[in-house]
From TrEMBL:
Entry function: An FAD-requiring monooxygenase active on some tetracycline antibiotic derivatives, which leads to their inactivation. Hydroxylates carbon 11a of tetracycline and some analogs.
Protein name: Flavin-dependent monooxygenase
Binding residues for NADPH: R40
EC number: 1.14.13.-
One cellular component (GO) term of this entry: cytoplasm
Family to which this protein belongs: Belongs to the aromatic-ring hydroxylase family. TetX subfamily.
Domain FAD-binding span(s) in chain numbering: 3-347
Gene3D superfamilies listed in its UniProt record: FAD/NAD(P)-binding domain
Length: 376
């Protein structure tokens, strides 16, 4: 295949695609808005699943590097009632199919696997337009442009490439997370550390939830989730860390102190993360020379599948292009026909769309029943 591939976005999906293309000898350039790989923190833990994310890493030839960064013991899971009672606990014996890694380390593995110069940093896209015959022009914020015959939007929720294919835009999903970190938890926050345990902890309740994970060392990373309109969060002054913390903690009045400590004892200012989603099952008609992957194609409320799906999208698209070296459109058609149902299925459980924390079933017992059903 002689048509160079232009990828917008150096997240996990875009980099997986670039790596698989490189493995197959297909020229590729990735344009990324961030100034460097270290421009911002890359987020927390990711569980990489044996049915999607790990398949992508196998296609990329990076399983050995992946295994080297797996954090042992982090697949452990516990479910607590708001009063702190442990309702469910599952250990990590190392045989589970969802090993945990730090997102930043995984991204670095992908970056290190690419030739120097593959990723062009500091290229923020301001717009895209079709030129006809499958050609597209990408314009950058600095006024520069690039013309390509094969454009892939791996640029996330607010993709600048998506408008070439669809008028769909993300809409607020009705829930948001407030992110906190507790450092040196075993010595400085022992009760919270004990509640979280060695892996992940979920304390659910209708309309609210506390999810926390033990990351590298004894850092606790928590997501405090609430089902509230955007206007409600807009009234919280997140520039005043103490006031914001107090306001969020007030929504969990009566909960066990070892759980609310994940809000009140944070060692960083609380960060608001609103949840947005594209319409479930979004599809578009085939447009020559362009496609999407990951959140650009199927943004959903966080459910543990997003990064895994993005990586699998990248791997499957790369394999499709390698399998159709003389027919780009056949490759893109094959990729999209598989990607559309795969991404729609990921936001359902037993064929029913997952309702999330707003559901009356978002309780410890409801969660335990779901886990039990999954193991049958």
């Amino acid at each position: 295949m002689h048509t160079p591939v232009t990828i917008i976005g150096a997240g996990l999906g875009g980099l997986t695609l670039a790596r698989v293309l490189h493995v197959h000898g297909i020229p590729v350039t990735v344009y990324e808005s961030e100034a460097s790989p270290a421009a911002r923190t890359q987020g927390g833990m990711l569980d990489i699943h044996d049915y999607n994310g790990q398949l992508a890493l196998e296609a990329a030839g990076l399983m050995e590097e992946f295994r080297a960064i797996v954090l042992e013991g982090r697949q452990a899971m516990r479910v607590l009632d708001p009063d702190g009672t442990v309702m469910f606990e599952q250990g990590d014996d190392g045989t589970g199919g969802r090993p945990e890694v730090q997102r930043g380390e995984l991204r670095q593995i992908l970056l290190d696997s690419l030739p120097d110069g593959t990723v062009r940093w500091g290229h923020k896209v301001s717009g895209t337009r079709a030129l006809g015959e499958g050609r597209h022009e990408v314009t950058f914020a600095d006024g520069g442009t690039v013309v390509t015959r094969l454009l892939v939007g791996a640029d996330g929720a607010w993709s600048r490439v998506r408008p070439l294919l669809s008028a769909a835009a993300p809409e607020y999903a009705g829930t948001s997370a407030v992110e906190t970190y507790l450092f040196d938890s075993d010595t400085r926050h022992p009760e919270a550390a004990k509640a979280v345990g060695g892996g992940a902890m979920i304390a659910p309740s209708p309309g609210k939830e506390i999810f926390a994970h033990r990351e590298s060392g004894d850092t606790l990373h928590a997501y405090v989730m609430l089902s509230r309109p955007l206007d409600w969060f807009a009234a919280v002054d997140f520039t005043d860390a103490a006031a914001a913390t107090a306001r969020i903690a007030a929504e969990f009045e009566g909960w066990a102190p070892e759980l609310t400590a994940l809000i009140t004892d944070g060692d960083t200012a609380p960060v608001l993360r609103p949840h947005y989603a594209l319409p479930t099952g979004l599809r578009w008609d085939r447009v020559p020379g362009v496609t999407l992957l990951g959140d650009a194609a199927h943004l959903a409320v966080p459910n543990g599948e997003g990064a895994n799906l993005a990586m699998l999208d990248g791997a499957e698209l790369g394999k499709a292009l390698a399998a159709h070296p003389d027919d780009v459109e056949a490759a893109l058609t094959a990729y999209e026909q598989a990607m559309f149902p795969r991404s729609a299925e990921a936001v359902t459980y037993e064929g029913v769309e997952v309702q999330g924390i707003a559901s009356e079933n978002n309780t410890a017992q409801g969660l335990i029943e779901m886990f039990t059903e999954e193991r049958r």
